[in-house]
Amino acid sequence: MKKLLLICSALLMMMSAKAQFPMMGGGNAAPKVTGRISATILDSLTKQPVEYATVSLVNTKTSKPVNGGLTDAKGKVTIQNVAPGDYKMVVGFIGYTTKNIMVKTTPEKPDNNIGDVFLSGGASTLNEVTIEGKKSMIENKIDRMVYNAEADATNAGGDATDVMRKVPMLSVDINGNVQLRGSAVRVLINGKPSGTMANSVADALKMIPADQIKSVEVITNPSAKYEAEGSGGIINIITKKSNAEGVSGSVNASAGTRQNTGNFNLTAKSGRFSANTALGGMYAYAQDSRVIFFNQLPGSSVLQDGTSAWKREMFNGSLGLDYDFNAYNNISTNAKYNRFYNGGPGSSLLNTNVGGQITNLTNVSTTDMTNNNLDWNMDYRRTTKKQGEEFSVAGQLTEGRNINDFSNNINGNSLTASVNTGKNREYTIQTDYVYPFSKTVTFEVGGKGIFRNIKSEFGQGSGKIFDYDQNVGAAYSTIAFNLTKKIKFKGGVRTEYTAIEYNDINGNLINDDYLNLFPNAVISQTISGSTTVKLAYNKRIQRPSLAYLNPFNNQSNPVNTFEGNPALDPELSHNVELGYSTFIKGSMINASLFYRNTRNVIENIVRAASGITSTTFANVGNTNSYGANLFGSYNPTPKWTLMSNIAVNTYEIRSRDDLQGMNEGTYINYNFFMRSATAFKGGWNLELFGVVNSPRYTYQSKTQAMFFYGGAVKKDIMKKQGTIGLNLLNPFNRDLHINTVSRSADAYQTQNIYYPLRQIGLNFSYKFGKLKFTEKKKIKNDDVKQEQQQGGGMGGGMGQGK
């Protein structure tokens, strides 16, 4: 621990000193005062805002443009970093006469609000300004694919799960869990992790209104600046933030046959200070889920048939503050609290056969799983006159408390009950520095320290405590430059040192540590103005989270217990990708081939234990996986968009000698998504989609293929400030049948879950003020492997309809 603290302290001091040096500018002079010029552009006849009007600021002494911007939906524009002086503001838009306004700022009054500027109709050519259109829905960058959700009108009234289904290369299962190329991914919000995401990505996504998402970044080849996350990659959800003066916000609500949600967002901005807050809640009705579970061991078997009626409740609230000291220094802070509850009663019939003797039993059960999480961060950012140069320091605290209670009453007289309380606390500090040597060469360097403590208390007064410390120190550097006008390169290396110390449930002290080096590189060539190819390599790691490590023996299902494994090693993977992307007359094709080699693959395994089966996690072996992804978007008409994504990858495990499984060959996993979105006159939108998931394999199990489908009809109201719609999911089938078969050397299981899926719901959203977003640098802890929500046994995951 002392060694780790010294490493982190040295890194932070080094980064701070390096960052401060170029800002001194030879004399330690303070930066000049700069301000901002703002205005509201309106039509002179209708007095309505002119959106996407171009505003250019020209220095009257030099006659050269110095800055500019585009107006938002309210016609507002703010031009930043304006030095005191005399300027000519040139305002124009197609169909209007260009307007020139003289503007002056002084050191004593650096900010100048021009107020309303009226444009008159005309056909003048805008010689002094550049006209820009709306963003494309899909953007392809050197190391990521970007889906601009705000450019997709069909997102209104939905949640983040609906948005993720439309993002290239992603697949979303029936529970709302997200995968990229057949692997789990780390989901970040504005570049930072969340305790809510750590517990359940699917639940957390349902608490984010689609209207609040600016874009979604799919990062298949994260640079060394990011945590060395697992092989899947990173999904970064960029939310919206208002830069406009005054108050703006939104309200979203939905009511349906399965669940009801409500969200409220508010942003207030005055001068250099802004504040934002959000409140949200969700309630899912208790609906019966049926599970038929068959378990066979040598000399015995058990058949379990029952139902559970779980309800789900969620609540979150957040408060954020942001202040610009001047044009170069900014400080921000944000706190977010989340509470999730899953649980309810269940009952099942147990038919046991031991040596030919048959016994019939009845089990009445209750389960209570509650998660509480608090995330708080503080960020400082400093920029300079040099475009692109930036130094930042950030700190974050994450605290969580998870409770898992259960009781089983068999035949009215055999009662088992237990309580497991898990507590986690995580402190993070990081610093980053970006220095652009030129417009085409950028260098980045940074350091980070993560200090985690996990405690799990077992039973009622048993005194058993699992106490786990994991501390990570990291340093990185990256460089990006153009080899030629059409060939770009970005690469780097990251070093991470991990120290682990824990007391097992028997009180034994165990220590472990490891040092890893993570290189990455991507080279991209533009073949034409709209076609690019790229080749990328990276090495990644995934450390197991509490769900994988916790040794608590969960007996909520009396015939199939569950416990974690604190002795798990992290997964290490090498990834190579060849990608191709082209845009043709508004349509897009993105194709990629990839290879992944993963060591110490973590999967769940089944084993015999005292006449029943027990499920845990293990490093089952190593794997080589080959795959391909094809995403296409086509517009048969300007208002009709067809979108499809096909992902295929191989699954093959080279297993440990001491572990046997049912899947020892090579298998194919695939996912197919198809979507049609059409806009009609009068603000109407129609959307239809379907998802096909192939059978899913692990070394010891196979889950059969599944298909689900849905659609939505939406109508703009209140002058396009509001939306009302009808959403459908599997309207013709109440249940989705999920069949899983598992086999080990001494156990055989089948599990059939009849999952209540059908949803018919109404949604409403309303925006007051235009929410225009910027992305803040935040802490990103993306190194922990997260457990995916899966259909489980009785009381251990069944009935958790999303």
Give your account of this protein's structure:
This protein is mainly beta. The chain folds into two domains: 34-133, Sandwich (Immunoglobulin-like); 246-785, TonB-dependent receptor, beta-barrel domain (Maltoporin, Chain A, Beta Barrel), CATH 2.40.170.20. The protein has five helices and 44 strands. It has a 22-stranded antiparallel β-barrel. A hairpin with a 6-residue loop joins strand 24 (442-458) and strand 25. Residues 790-802 have a biased composition (Gly residues). Residues 1-19 form the signal peptide. It is a multi-pass membrane protein. This is TonB-dependent receptor domain-containing protein.
How is this fold's topology laid out?
Layout: H1 2-20, E1 35-43, E2 54-59, E3 65-70, E4 76-82, E5 85-92, E6 99-105, E7 112-119, E8 138-141, E9 144-147, H2 160-164, E10 170-172, E11 178-180, E12 183-184, E13 186-189, H3 195-199, H4 201-206, E14 213-219, E15 234-239, E16 246-256, E17 259-270, E18 273-297, E19 300-324, E20 329-354, E21 357-383, E22 390-410, E23 414-436, E24 442-458, E25 465-482, E26 487-503, E27 509-528, E28 531-544, H5 546-549, E29 560-562, E30 571-584, E31 587-609, E32 612-637, E33 640-651, E34 653-655, E35 667-680, E36 684-693, E37 696-698, E38 701-703, E39 706-717, E40 722-729, E41 735-743, E42 748-756, E43 759-768, E44 784-785
Parallel strand pairs: 1-7, 13-15, 28-44, 29-32
Antiparallel strand pairs: 1-4, 2-3, 2-5, 5-6, 8-9, 9-14, 10-11, 11-12, 14-15, 16-17, 16-43, 17-18, 18-19, 18-42, 19-20, 20-21, 21-22, 22-23, 23-24, 24-25, 25-26, 26-27, 27-28, 28-30, 30-31, 31-32, 32-33, 32-34, 33-35, 35-36, 36-39, 37-38, 38-41, 39-40, 40-43, 41-42
